[in-house]
Specification:
58% helix; Endonuclease III, domain 1; Endonuclease Iii, domain 2; elongated; 219 residues; mainly alpha
Length: 219
Amino acid sequence: MSKGDERRVRAKKVVAYLKKHYPKPKTELHYKTPFQMLVAVVLSAQCTDKAVNKTTETLFRKYRTPKDFAHADLAVLTKEISSIPFFRNKAKAIIGSAQKIEKDFKGKIPRTVDELTTLSGVGYKTANVILGELYEIWEGIPTDTHVKRFAYRLDLSDSRDLTKISHDLEALVPKKDWKYVNNGLVLYGRYECPARMHDCSSHALTTLWPEANKRWIKA
């Protein structure tokens, strides 16, 4: 059996587990409007959902729609999200995205990856998270830090680039199952198998491929 075939078989087992244990893909980020969802995802880059939710609890009382954010004062918004990593760049990206959505998309969040990635601060991963969460459209598999480390630990990709990992996983997993991969691995990594090095030989996905217990990404 070729390496590609082995990976395909392993991916099938991994997805079967994720589908069973995390059957309803849903973010743990808090939001009430579509644009708040986009803002929360942009803020979550290199930041925990818990920290984002703490910041947006107050922020989202003031800003709800693209129009609200489009007319926000940059200095004020920057201060309001200053507890978040890279807050200056994120504040600029959020206002820029809001202005573009108001101008080019009539205040509506776009429904394609190509359109979403024209927005400031929105890349392939962010676009696919937004599409899946808001519209249940799965054009691709989003790769974040959790997905990256399990793609390596379970030997499902040779790349370290997030978008390339996404494409490797998309080639291994049938499109009908793409929606389970990111959310499932995020929750599994968050609550079952954290990033710090530890003995995880008894963890569910490691029992599917014991070699995973020997493979760790260096910080």
